[in-house]
Design brief:
Blueprint: H1 24-39, H2 46-55, H3 64-73, E1 85-87, E2 90-92
Antiparallel strand pairs: 1-2
Helix pairs in contact: 1-2, 2-3
Length: 93
């Protein structure tokens, strides 16, 4: 993301507005790894995803909190499927 206003540019990362934002590629790796683990009926929480990403030599390796944030943002945290259906006030996962 390029900064349009020079006063918002970062000295360490020229042209980048927010250098701490997770790169899209890393987010996609997290989502695909989560889906892979889920489809293999394996634990698919942030710690398991981080371990799998480490085995895949993903760099930079996101922290568990970052993985959790990505999964929450993508709607992959509710139950094993990531989807919640509410019918007549009753929750079905």
């Amino acid at each position: 993301m390029k900064a349009r206003d020079p006063k918002h540019q970062n000295e360490l990362y020229p042209g980048v507005v927010n250098p701490r934002r997770t790169k899209q590629e890393i987010e996609e790796c997290v989502v695909l790894t989560r889906l892979e683990l889920y489809n293999r009926a394996m634990p698919c929480g942030p710690k398991a995803i981080q371990e799998k990403l480490k085995a895949y030599n993903v760099n930079p390796l996101p922290a568990e909190s970052t993985i959790s944030r990505i999964m929450t943002h993508r709607g992959l945290t509710d139950g094993r499927t990531g989807f919640k259906i509410i019918l007549d006030g009753k929750t079905k996962i």
